[in-house]
Amino acid sequence: MINTNKVYQERRVWQPKHIDNIEIAYRDSSAFNLPAHFHEELEITLMQGSNWNFDYRGEKFTVPPFSFTLTQPGETHKASFESDFNCRFYGLRVKADLLKQLAEEIKGNYQYLPFFSTPVASDKELSQLIFTFHVLVKNSKGSILKQQSLLLQIVEKLILRYTQDSSNLKYIGKENQSIQRVKDYLNDNYAKNISLEELARIANFSPFYLNRAFRKQVGIPPHKYQTQIRIARAKNLLNNLSISQVAVKTGFSSQSHFGWHFKKVMGVTPKKYVKESNILIDANI
């Protein structure tokens, strides 16, 4: 039976101040249930203490402790976990620009986003490296050089061990091309108040068929996709603008409306995200 007593929980998501192109997520809790969502980054996740559930690419996985998952940028997934004791969940999100840069340097003349074909990996060496990196960043331990070097080592090993040539992937059919056009339009016009009819014209589908086809291919309906794109853009804007300004620029009706959606997607409020992302580490350590 699950323990219903109130227990300690911690949830943090932030961009380290001195390491570009990554985002860190940390959770210490006895349960979570993340609905269908996606990240623009490659997400690498592992958890200590218990199995957890991972729904991805139409399959359901049970992830053992200290194994890790690899979620391709832009691909929808779900995750859940429930226990009678707290477990620690570590997430590392690597931006697509860094993945492309390193893939080109590693493979030579490689112009594609690396395709990570393995959803769940049991790799003790890499799990330990990911865990070590996460602890160093979370606790502001070690020099910036050490943290940056360890990150590059992790991404290099991931590319070499768990990717396949995306140029050889299956040709995208006409329906998929139509959905991609809609996604591209939403990416470019995320702040606009867009109607389903407008998107249907872009895809050359009926509104009903577009809504159904989009959900089937992407894993979430168009309005949720637009919201998550808005939150992704907001994370970058928060570096230079106030929360109220970001809310307006990303198309939300109010700061409270923006804050509610941000916390639902990210697990923390915009204020906490900004505070965590601006923590400085001692460069002399």
Give an overview of the whole structure.
The model is unreliable at 1-5, 168-172 and 279-285 (pLDDT under 50). The chain is built from 10 helices and 10 strands. It is α+β, with helices and mostly antiparallel strands. The longest helix is centred in the middle third of the chain and has 19 residues, at 144-162. The N and C termini lie far apart (45 Å).
| Strand portion | 15-25%
Low-confidence stretches: 1-5, 168-172, 279-285
Give Rg in angstroms.
19 Å
What is the CA–CA distance across the termini?
Answer: 45 Å
Kindly report the name of the CATH homologous superfamily of the largest domain. Regulatory protein AraC
Average of the residue pLDDT scores: 88
Instruction: Give the CATH level 1 class of the largest domain.
Output: Mainly Beta
What is the percent of helical residues?
40-55%
Secondary-structure-based class equals alpha+beta
How does the major sheet shape up? 8 strands, antiparallel
Number of domains: 2
Explain briefly what this protein structure is.
The chain is of the alpha+beta class.
Please name the defining characteristics of this protein.
285 residues; 44% helix; 10 strands; alpha+beta; 23% strand; globular; Jelly Rolls; Arc Repressor Mutant, subunit A; disordered C terminus; eight-stranded antiparallel beta sheet
What's the arrangement of secondary structure elements?
Elements: E1 10-14, E2 22-37, E3 42-48, E4 52-56, E5 59-63, E6 68-71, E7 77-94, H1 96-107, E8 115-116, E9 120-121, H2 124-138, H3 144-162, E10 163-164, H4 174-188, H5 196-203, H6 207-218, H7 222-237, H8 243-249, H9 255-266, H10 270-277
Antiparallel strand pairs: 1-2, 2-7, 3-6, 3-7, 4-5, 4-7, 6-9, 8-10
